[in-house]
Design brief:
The complex is a heterotrimer of chains A (356), B (277) and C (310). With 356 residues, chain A is α+β, with helices and mostly antiparallel strands. In chain A, 25% of the residues lie in helices and 32% in strands. Chain A contains 9 helices and 19 strands. In chain A, strand 7, helix 5 and strand 8 (189-194) form a beta-alpha-beta unit. Chain B has 277 residues and is an all-alpha fold. Chain B has helices at residues 2-5, 12-39, 43-51, 53-86, 92-98, 101-104, 107-118, 123-130, 139-164, 167-175, 180-209, 212-218, 228-237, 241-274. In chain C, 75% of the residues lie in helices and 0% in strands. The chains are: A alpha+beta (356), B mainly alpha (277), C mainly alpha (310). Chains in contact: A-B, A-C, B-C. At the B-C interface, helix 2, helix 4, helix 5, helix 6 and helix 7 of B face helix 1, helix 2, helix 4, helix 5 and helix 6 of C.
Chain lengths: 356, 277, 310
C-alpha cells in the first residue's frame, strides 16, 4: 500500500492550472524524484504535500490518513527549502535545534536537544561548526544544515525543494551521492523536486515526471528511460533528435499517421565507410555536420534525408571529420501521436533477435 | 475564508484586523470627515470660498514660494549629494549628518531662529539690509524657510542613486573620449533625473503644507505673505468649518495629485530599468 | 561645469577616442573620477562645489542653531536657567513626553502589525492598503489638526455623546495626542516594510512548518531582521512627535500649563515678545534634535550593515 498518496488533486492560481487531476502513490522508504521543466507544477505538488499550500480539490493521504485539514506543522514532515531558509540570525546549532525547542515535537529535556543536535551535525559532517552563523558557511555546508534541521524532529517524510539548485556544479556532484547514501541509511521516505534529469536519474529510486500540471509518468529511472509512455516523456528524457520522415530510413514498418519521430544518440550506430556495419543493408548514408569532444565520448551531429540528429562514438574509435560521408543505422525510434508515445523497433533487429 | 485558515504563517487575521481598524480610526474616518463637511456647502458656496480673493492670493503665495524653494532645493540637492558621494574632504561626515537637521529640529524652533537670523538685527538679515533687501516678513523669507525644510528630501533621494551608479558607464564614456561635462550631462544626469524629480515632488508637497517654520518668518500680511495653511487656521478660529474644509480639500487634492505624479515617475523609471511593459 | 567648453558631437567621439585611450592607460583604476587627469579645471569645479555646499550648510543649518544659542544666552545664564526651569516649561516638557510616548506606543503596535500583514501575506487590496498607510505623510499638519476638530469638535455628530461621557478631546490633552499620533502614524511601518519585503517569507515558513507559534516566529525569526530598522523608525517617530507644531497647534487651544507642548510654548513666548525665554525653551529642543541626529546616524548605519545577513 502506498505510504503517500495523492488522489485527483487540482490547484489553480488564477487562470494558471498548477495541478490538473494529479494522482500518484509512493511506497514507504522510497526516494522519489519529482522531475519536470519549470512551471510544470512539481513544486506546487511538494508544497501541497507539506501543507504549505492547500489543493482546490482532491485528497492527500499520508500513512492511510487524509491530511488535507491537518496543518503543516502537525504532518510530521521535514522540509528542505530551495534556498534553505536558514534562520540567518541564529547559529547553526540553534537552527538545527529549532524544531526540537518549539512546536508539536518540542522536547523539554535540554540534554536531549543537545545530544540530538550534535548527533545530526555529526551525521551531516558539520560537527564543530555549531557556533557559526549561516553566513559563515559555504553553499554546500548550508545545505547540510538545512538537511539536519529538517531531520531533527524525526519526521516520517522528508521533502526537498530543488535541493541542489543553489550549489555550484562541482560540489553538487558530491552532495548528490552523499544525500542518496544518507537517505538510504536512514530509510526515510523522501521526495525531492528537480528540473535536472541527470540528477533525478542518479539520485531517485523512482521518478515522477510532471508537465503542465499533470503527471506524465511514474517509474524507475530505467523504466522511464526505456519505455516512455507519453510524447512529453519521450522527448524530455535524454538528448533527443527528430526524424523528418522516418519512412525514409530503412527497415521501419510504416504505422499510420504520427506527430514526431524521436531518435536518441544511443539509438544510432554510426560507422565510417571503411568500418564494419552489421546491418549494412538497413543503414543509410549521412553527412557529418559537427564533431564535439564531450570528455568521455565524441558527439557527432549528422544530417541524413533532411533530418538532423546526434550520434556518439567512443574515444578509441577512429575520428570522423566534418563533411565526411558515413553510414548510420537506427536501432529504434519513439513515435508520438497526441499524448502517447510508442516504441518502433528496426525490423532488421527482429530478424537477428537481438535485445538490448 | 477556508483558504485563509490554512495559511502556514500565522497571524493574517489578527494583523490585518489591527491594521485596518487603526487605519480607519486614525486616518480614514477623520479624512473622510473633510469631504462630509465640505459637502454641507452648496456648490456655489464652495466656489465662493475657494475663489475668494484672499484665498486665491494665499494659493499664489504658497505655490510660488514652495515652487521656487523646491527648484533651489533641486539644484542644491544635486550639488550636495554629488559632493557627499564623490568628494572626500574634512567635515564631509558632519555635513552629511547636518542634512537631516530639518527632520530633527522642531519646525517652530526652526521658524523662530530663521526669523531671528534674517530679521534686520540677525547675522544674515543685517548683511542684506545694507543692500536694501529684506528677508524676514517677505516672500523671500518664506522661500528661505522652505529651502530649509525641503533640502533633505532631494539630497536623500538623489544620494543613494549616485552611490549605486555603476562607474563602468562613466569609464566607457571616458574611454570613448567624452569630456567630464559631457559625461555628466549625457551619462550621469539621465540616471539621477528621476530621483531629482521625485525629490523635487516630495519637497514641493512638504513645502505647500508647511506651517510651523513659515508662520513666524512670513509676517502673515493678507494678499502678500499669507500662506494657505494660515487661512485655514484663521477660518477655524472663526468657527467657519465649512470654508476651512473646502480650502483644506483643495490642498489635499493637490498633494495627492503630486504624490501620484511622483509615483508615476518611479513606476516609469523602474520599467525602463527592468524592461517591463 | 568648467570643462563644458569642449562640446563633443556624436560623430566626433570617434576622433577623440585615441587620446582618451592613452589617458585611461595612465590611470587604470576603478574610480571613474580618474579617467581624466585631474586638470586645473576639474580641481576648480571640485573646490567650487565643495565651497558652495559648505556655505549652504553653514547658512541654512549651522547659523540657525547658533542663533538659538546666542539668543537664549543673550541675558546671561540666570535668565536662561529661569526660563528653562519655569513651571510652564516643565509642564510643557511633560506633555511633550506624554504625547511622544503615546505616539511611539500606538505607532509601534500599528507598525509591527501592518508590516507583518503587508509583507507576509498576499491578499486583495494590498496596494491600496500600503498607499493609505502613507497618506498622513502627505497631509499638511494644519489639515491633520482640522480633521480631528471636525470629528470630535462641537459641530460633530458625536460631540453630544462625548460631552455626556465627560470626554473632551479638542482643546485638551487627548486632542494633542491624537494629532501627534496622526502625523507620525506611518513612521515605523514604512521603515519595517522594505526590510521585511526584502527578507521574504522563507524563514517564517520554515519555522511555521516546524510548528513554532506566531509569537515564537516573530520574536525568534523575524524581529532580529528588523531590529535596527525598528529603532531607526522609533527615532524618526520621536523626532517628529516631539517637534510637531501645526497639527497640535490646531487642537491644543494653547492653554498654558495644560495643553502646551514645548513647540507650542515656544510660539506663545515668541508671540508675546519674550524672546530670551522663547529661545531658551527652544534650546532644549535643539539639544534633543542633536541627540536624535546622532542616534539616527548610528541606527541607520547599523540598519544598512547588520540587516540583510548572508
Amino acid at each position: 500500500m502506498a505510504y503517500v498518496e495523492l488522489k485527483n488533486i487540482n490547484k489553480s492560481y488564477g487562470d494558471f492550472k498548477a495541478s490538473d487531476d494529479v494522482s500518484f502513490g509512493i511506497e514507504r522508504g522510497k526516494l522519489i524524484g519529482l522531475l519536470g521543466p519549470s512551471g510544470s507544477g512539481k513544486t506546487t505538488i511538494l508544497r501541497m504535500i507539506a501543507g504549505l499550500e492547500s489543493p482546490d480539490s482532491g485528497e492527500i493521504i499520508i500513512d492511510g490518513k487524509v491530511v488535507n485539514d491537518i496543518p503543516a506543522s502537525k504532518r510530521g514532515i521535514g522540509f528542505v527549502f530551495q534556498n534553505y531558509a536558514l534562520f540567518r540570525y541564529m547559529t547553526v546549532f540553534d537552527n538545527v535545534a529549532f524544531g526540537l525547542k518549539y512546536g508539536p515535537y518540542a522536547q523539554k529535556d535540554k540534554k536531549y536537544i543537545e545530544t540530538r543536535v550534535n548527533e545530526l551535525l555529526d551525521l551531516v559532517g558539520l560537527s564543530g561548526l555549531g557556533k557559526r552563523y549561516p553566513s559563515q558557511l559555504s553553499g554546500g555546508q548550508r545545505q547540510r544544515v538545512a538537511f539536519a534541521r529538517a531531520l531533527a524532529p524525526n519526521p516520517y517524510l522528508l521533502l526537498l525543494d530543488e535541493p541542489f539548485a543553489a550549489i555550484d556544479a562541482k560540489v553538487r556532484q558530491e552532495l548528490r551521492s552523499w544525500l542518496k547514501q544518507i537517505i538510504e541509511k536512514l530509510g526515510i521516505t523522501s521526495i525531492f523536486v528537480t528540473h535536472d534529469q541527470d540528477e533525478a536519474i542518479e539520485v531517485a529510486d523512482e521518478i515522477i515526471i510532471t508537465n503542465n500540471g499533470r503527471v506524465e509518468q511514474q517509474g524507475t529511472p530505467i523504466e522511464i528511460y526505456r519505455d516512455p509512455q507519453t510524447a512529453f516523456t519521450a522527448a524530455f528524457f535524454g538528448q533527443t533528435g527528430y526524424l523528418e520522415d522516418y519512412r525514409k530510413f530503412k527497415s521501419f514498418e510504416p504505422i499510420g499517421e504520427i506527430d514526431k519521430a524521436i531518435v536518441r544518440p544511443e539509438f544510432v550506430k554510426l560507422t565510417k565507410k571503411n568500418e564494419f556495419q552489421k546491418f549494412k543493408t538497413s543503414a543509410v548514408e549521412a553527412t557529418v555536420e559537427r564533431v564535439s569532444f564531450r570528455g568521455n565520448y565524441i558527439e557527432v551531429g549528422v544530417e541524413s534525408n533532411g533530418s538532423h540528429f546526434v550520434a556518439r562514438r567512443e574515444l578509441e574509435q577512429e575520428l570522423v571529420s566534418v563533411g565526411e560521408k558515413v553510414d548510420v543505422f537506427i536501432y529504434r525510434i519513439f513515435v508520438t501521436k497526441g499524448d502517447k508515445a510508442y516504441l518502433l523497433q528496426n525490423s532488421s533487429l527482429r530478424e537477428e533477435s537481438v535485445v538490448i | 475564508m477556508k483558504e485563509k485558515s490554512k495559511r502556514v504563517i500565522p497571524g493574517l487575521g489578527l494583523s490585518l484586523g489591527v491594521t485596518i481598524t487603526m487605519l480607519s480610526v486614525i486616518v480614514i474616518i477623520p479624512l473622510a470627515s473633510l469631504a462630509v463637511f465640505t459637502g454641507r456647502l452648496s456648490f456655489g458656496e464652495f466656489i465662493d470660498v475657494i475663489t475668494n480673493k484672499r484665498v486665491l492670493a494665499s494659493f499664489e503665495v504658497s505655490f510660488v514660494t514652495a515652487f521656487i524653494a523646491s527648484l533651489i532645493n533641486a539644484v542644491m540637492g544635486v550639488v550636495l549629494a554629488w559632493v557627499l558621494v564623490r568628494y572626500d574632504f574634512p567635515g564631509r561626515r558632519i555635513i552629511d549628518g547636518m542634512i537631516e537637521l530639518p527632520f530633527a529640529l522642531p519646525t517652530a524652533v526652526a521658524g523662530i531662529s530663521l526669523t531671528a537670523l534674517t530679521s534686520d538685527k540677525g547675522w544674515i538679515g543685517r548683511l542684506f539690509d545694507r543692500v536694501g533687501i529684506k528677508i524676514a516678513y517677505t516672500r523671500i523669507g518664506i522661500t528661505f524657510a522652505l529651502v530649509f525644510v525641503g533640502i533633505p528630501f532631494v539630497v536623500r533621494t538623489v544620494q543613494p542613486v549616485l552611490e549605486k551608479l555603476d562607474g563602468t558607464y562613466e569609464e566607457a564614456a571616458g574611454v570613448m573620449g567624452a569630456s567630464r561635462a559631457v559625461i555628466f550631462r549625457r551619462i550621469i544626469f539621465p540616471e539621477i533625473r528621476p530621483a531629482v524629480f521625485t525629490g523635487f515632488g516630495l519637497a514641493l508637497g512638504r513645502c505647500i503644507g508647511e506651517y510651523g517654520s513659515v508662520v513666524f518668518i512670513a509676517g502673515n500680511q493678507p494678499y502678500n505673505t499669507e500662506i494657505t495653511p494660515l487661512i485655514i487656521m484663521a477660518k477655524l478660529q472663526e468657527y467657519d468649518y465649512g470654508s476651512a474644509s473646502a480650502i483644506a480639500l483643495i490642498m489635499l487634492i493637490f498633494s495627492f495629485t503630486l504624490l501620484f505624479a511622483v509615483n508615476m515617475i518611479q513606476v516609469r523609471n523602474s520599467k525602463i530599468l527592468k524592461g517591463g511593459r | 561645469m568648467a570643462s563644458a567648453a569642449i562640446p563633443v558631437p556624436a560623430n566626433a567621439e570617434k576622433k577623440s577616442s585615441g587620446t582618451a585611450v592613452k589617458k585611461s592607460v595612465v590611470s587604470r583604476t576603478a574610480s571613474p573620477n580618474l579617467i581624466h587627469e585631474d586638470s586645473a579645471a576639474a580641481k576648480a569645479v571640485r573646490y567650487f562645489l565643495i565651497g558652495i555646499s559648505v556655505l549652504f550648510i553653514f547658512v541654512m543649518m549651522f547659523l540657525p542653531l547658533a542663533t538659538v544659542i546666542k539668543e537664549a544666552l543673550k541675558q546671561g545664564w540666570a535668565a536662561y536657567k529661569a526660563a528653562v526651569t519655569d513651571d510652564y516649561t516643565k509642564s510643557a516638557i511633560w506633555l511633550t513626553i506624554e504625547a511622544t510616548i503615546s505616539a511611539l506606543a500606538i505607532n509601534t503596535v500599528f507598525g509591527l502589525f501592518a508590516a507583518w500583514a503587508v509583507t507576509k501575506f498576499h491578499f486583495k487590496g494590498k496596494k491600496i492598503l500600503t498607499t493609505l498607510i502613507d497618506v498622513p505623510i502627505t497631509v499638511s499638519p494644519i489639515i491633520a489638526g482640522l480633521i480631528f476638530v471636525l470629528v470630535f469638535g462641537r459641530q460633530s455628530v458625536i460631540y453630544p455623546y462625548l460631552k455626556q461621557a465627560g470626554i473632551q478631546i479638542v482643546y485638551a490633552v487627548p486632542g494633542v495626542i491624537l494629532a501627534t499620533v496622526f502625523v507620525t502614524f506611518p513612521f515605523i511601518s514604512r521603515e519595517l516594510i522594505p526590510v521585511l519585503e526584502a527578507q521574504g517569507t522563507d524563514e517564517e515558513e520554515a519555522a511555521a512548518l516546524m510548528g513554532a507559534n506566531g509569537w515564537t516566529i516573530f520574536t525568534k525569526v523575524t524581529f532580529p531582521h528588523i531590529k535596527w530598522a525598528f529603532l531607526y523608525g522609533v527615532v524618526l517617530c520621536t523626532a517628529r512627535a516631539m517637534g510637531e507644531f501645526g497639527a497640535v497647534s490646531v487642537l491644543s487651544g494653547h492653554l498654558r500649563g495644560k495643553t502646551n507642548t514645548l513647540p507650542l510654548y515656544v510660539e506663545v513666548l515668541f508671540q508675546g515678545f519674550e524672546w530670551v525665554p522663547a529661545f531658551a525653551v527652544s534650546s532644549i529642543l535643539v539639544i534633543m534634535a542633536v541627540v536624535i541626529l546622532v542616534a539616527r546616524n548610528i541606527f541607520e548605519h547599523n540598519a544598512k550593515t547588520k540587516s540583510g545577513g548572508v
